[in-house]
Design a protein that fits this description.
With 231 residues, this protein is α/β, with parallel strands linked by helices. The protein has one domain: 5'-nuclease (Rossmann fold). It has helices at residues 3-6, 22-30, 40-47, 72-83, 139-152, 169-177, 195-198, 209-214, and strands at residues 14-21, 52-62, 89-105, 111-113, 121-123, 127-137, 158-162, 181-185, 220-221, 224-225. The protein has a six-stranded mixed sheet, with helices on both faces. Strands 4-5 form a two-stranded antiparallel ribbon. It is globular. The model is unreliable at 108-114 (pLDDT under 50).
């Protein structure tokens, strides 16, 4: 009989690597909440029982672009610096890609007055609106690639993916095919993963407001203070 059989408390814990889709988490449950100063290590521990040991957290995001208008870039910088204080957490950055958009709008968006002193008017046949948008690129690919790398390097017994993005289905399926454990956490509160993802996930773990509340950083993290708008 081995020492671990005699003393069950000495049995090694299952190694967990956590993969956080930053934008999916933000828009899923954080954007309009008071819980944006979120400690991802605390949150991960609240989602797992004592039989698991978190060996790595990967946080996937991109530097946002706000053109200096509302301070969101500064707030994100504070948050990323706070995350860097967590041992074994790595921030993996994608990019925002500039995209020109042209939108054709039907009348009656605009009226052209042929005679400004009379009543001769006709609707504009079609209006063209042009603008610029920025789309985040790379998070889904980076997360899936890192998950597969860790799978084949045997870096985890269990992966925990915090996202509700079905783009990861192929990678999630591969994890289960290799007989590794997998938790998938829906980024919408109190909801299980969407059906097509749920079939790969063990158990029924969900995010709750209480978990978010309990997983906040302290007001000061080293010399980094929570942004005033997030208090």
């Amino acid at each position: 009989m081995s020492e671990q059989d005699l003393y069950p408390q000495l049995k090694s814990k299952k190694k967990v690597v956590v993969y956080v889709d930053g934008f999916n988490l933000y828009y899923g449950c954080l954007k309009d909440s008071k819980y944006r100063w979120l400690d991802l290590l605390k949150l991960s521990k609240l989602l797992l029982s004592d039989e698991y040991e978190i060996v790595k957290i990967n946080y996937f995001t991109a530097h946002i672009i706000d053109h200096g208008t509302n301070g969101s870039t500064t707030r994100q910088g504070f948050y990323l610096n706070a995350l860097k204080t967590i041992p074994n957490l790595e921030i993996k950055l994608g990019k925002f890609k500039k995209r020109e958009k042209t939108v054709y709008v039907n009348p009656p968006l605009k009226i052209i007055n042929e005679n400004p002193f009379g009543s001769d008017q006709r609707p504009l046949l079609k209006s063209i609106l042009k603008g610029t948008s920025y789309e985040e690129k790379g998070t889904d690919v980076n997360l899936a690639v890192q998950l597969i790398i860790d799978l084949y390097e045997n870096n985890f017994d269990v992966a925990m993916v915090i996202s509700n993005d079905s783009d990861y289905l192929s990678a999630l399926e591969k994890v289960r095919q290799k007989k590794k454990g997998l938790f998938i956490i829906n980024t919408k509160l109190d909801q299980l993963p969407q059906h097509e993802m749920r079939r790969f996930s063990m158990g029924k773990k969900v995010l709750t407001e209480e978990k978010l509340k309990s997983a906040q950083f302290s007001e000061m993290v080293g010399n980094i203070r929570i942004p005033k708008e997030w208090e």
